[in-house]
Design a protein that fits this description.
Rossmann fold; 7-stranded parallel sheet; 2 domains; 16 strands; elongated
Length: 296
């Protein structure tokens, strides 16, 4: 790790130092606290310790696949007892987006799980099937699961091309900008961002003179950070994440410090990823705490 820190200009740090240094911690979920196989090393002890000392922290997730109450229950079963109020998901950002853009009560196509559809309904949207022949005002890609993938993408693309050929506007909304996520050690999967990228490629080719593209709600956009600052009542926050393009870039642009953890998607073997121009404040090798700090 020393060579990485030396070449990037950022410093290596330890989890205990981060806890002491900032008033509030922001943690990514997948790749930091857990992956598809369960909690990552050090995560259970860290959450228990933060709860024990009443340290303010929030989990910022680009996911819109699971409602906060269901996420809290699932995490608790894994040994990660995170209060629902401290879970801030990209799906929650649909509420202000719908209000700001006049989409309450309007017909929407929503791709994702049943909880994804619930996010849209809670935002005030009226969900219709992707194979609708009628007009729609928004297409929301919330998750890559929960629907027949190819069939739904074909139907959604057909709706978009019919509207855009007639130059009828549609709001294109992407909750999760991540392209991939860590399923387990050495295993990865596509996310909703990958699906949106496919549709955008078609739109660029078909309408090269028009700038059709998805509005991205999750990191690196500021929405999740703004909500965390509002709930925390402080700007003295640090973002701990495993992805440069979402976690680190989002924190840097929001004006808070960032920590790149080398779990999840944090580092590619043999590379110095911040040569892309996205530099974290610190590099962290794990969530592990010194034995004396761990909660009983």
């Amino acid at each position: 790790m020393g060579s990485f820190a030396g070449r990037s200009g950022c410093a290596e740090t330890a989890m205990a130092a981060i806890i002491d240094r900032y008033s509030c911690l922001l943690l990514d979920a997948y790749g930091v606290l857990l992956d598809k196989s369960g909690p990552l090393p050090g995560a259970v002890a860290l959450i228990r310790y933060l709860n024990e000392i009443s340290k303010p922290y929030y989990v910022l997730s680009n996911s819109a696949s699971t409602l906060p109450e269901h996420m809290a229950a699932a995490l608790a079963e894994m040994g990660l007892p995170i209060p629902q109020r401290q879970l801030i998901t990209a799906g929650l950002l649909l509420v202000p987006y719908f209000q700001q853009h006049g989409l309450v009560g309007r017909r929407c196509i929503a791709l994702g799980t049943q909880d994804s559809l619930a996010y849209v309904l809670r935002a005030g949207g009226t969900v219709v099937s992707p194979d609708t022949l009628g007009s729609v005002k928004a297409v929301i890609i919330a998750d890559q699961t929960g629907f027949p993938l190819l069939e739904a993408l074909d139907d959604t693309l057909s709706v978009l091309l019919r509207h855009f050929d007639r130059q009828e506007p549609i709001h294109l909304v992407l909750c999760n900008p991540d392209l991939i996520y860590p399923r387990a050690s050495g295993r990865f999967g596509f996310t909703a961002g990958g699906l949106a990228a496919m549709i955008e490629a078609v739109l660029r080719e078909r309408y090269p003179e028009r700038a059709y593209g998805f509005v991205r709600l999750g990191k690196p956009s500021p929405g999740l950070f703004e909500e965390a600052a509002s709930r925390a009542g402080t700007g003295d926050m640090v973002m701990i994440g495993d992805q440069l393009a979402t976690d680190v870039l989002g924190a840097n642009q929001f004006g808070i410090d960032s920590v790149l953890i080398t779990t999840g998607l944090g580092l590619n073997a043999g590379t110095v990823p911040w040569e892309r121009g996205i530099v974290p404040t610190y590099v962290l090798s794990s969530l592990h705490l010194p034995p004396l700090l761990k909660a009983n």
